[in-house]
Protein: Ig-like domain-containing protein
Organism: Rotaria sordida
Amino acid sequence: MISIFIISFGLLLSSTIILSDDYLENLSVNTGETATFICDSPEKYSNKKADFYGPTGRLLITKTDDDIASGDRARFILEHTYAWTWSLILSDVSDDDAGEYTCRISSSSDDQTLTIIKRFNLTVLIPPKIIDIIIESNNNELLKENEQIILKCLARGIPQPKIIWQLPGKTFQLNKRNDGNIVAYENKLLIKNLSRTTPIDYQCIADNGIPPRDTRTKRLFPSISPEMTIQSSIISSHIILNCTIIARPLNSAKWKRNRFEINTIKRKQINDYTVELILLLDANTNIFGMYECEAENHFKVSKAFINIDETILFNRTTTLLPKYHRISPSSSSYAQIELLLNQTSICTYNFYIILFINIILVNYSNGFYNKR
């Protein structure tokens, strides 16, 4: 309302009367292309020169180019094709050029009366552009396992882009329950239960029919508190301790013996949230003690323990020997390795085989020497 008053007041001061004898033409042009405004004068104005005014009411171009800014001269060209036809050619169109343009002719001898012959409504078509993909959750984008989150794809363009969500090998239809866990609606994607098995990559595609369409991918990694299990096995004269850790992120992971960190371990990455820490122990050396597997992230520090100790069965102690090593007849006892995980004894199948063979060898040796 204020702008209309200012324009009217300016027109009164200039003593210029604007009449309307026009009709409206809609033009749509892609950014970077050329827009052509063609103004055909009525027969009664065929000997009059036409002027073009831009969205701000500024006279864009005259025959001598006196009233056009120097930076626009390369983009605006005025053509007089026929006696009654005037054309304004605007090259390299940008979104700032959108708006209403008018073709005006001086309809009085003193040039104080302008008649609008034609109006042009220029719409600049802009390809889609994704601004961002934001996460709506209860933890300010700190994703926790088993929580509900919403992905929101923000895009702009003219016309307003439509949003399509895709996962590898799968497209989600809007406002349809695509599966029991993921629903797409408007420009959002609802994930009802974000877990470690939920897909990681979510692709937003923005398309408004003006090429090229824009795509952006959001990766989701739910945080997981450390979980761990320890497995033990015996191969020949070696004991293998395998600590499997599930955590995301994993800030640190280590093996300790009697509270001292062990550096000679092998780390194996299973997937983006699972790690195995493998510890190889030589049973012919002093390996007895409390072994501790420790994992830490921003949620907590988790620990699991396994105790390796020696139990004397026949009141005498020997070392654990390779299963084919000859045992002295005076050594009628053998060593047993007890593996305790969380105060529970774990004996593997291989351990029982070695124990069985040792007992047979001891009994055979005693019987052989008794006969002699």
Notes: The first strand starts at residue 17 and ends at 20. Helices lie at 2-14, 349-371. Confidence is low (pLDDT under 50) at residues 1-15, 312-349, 366-372.
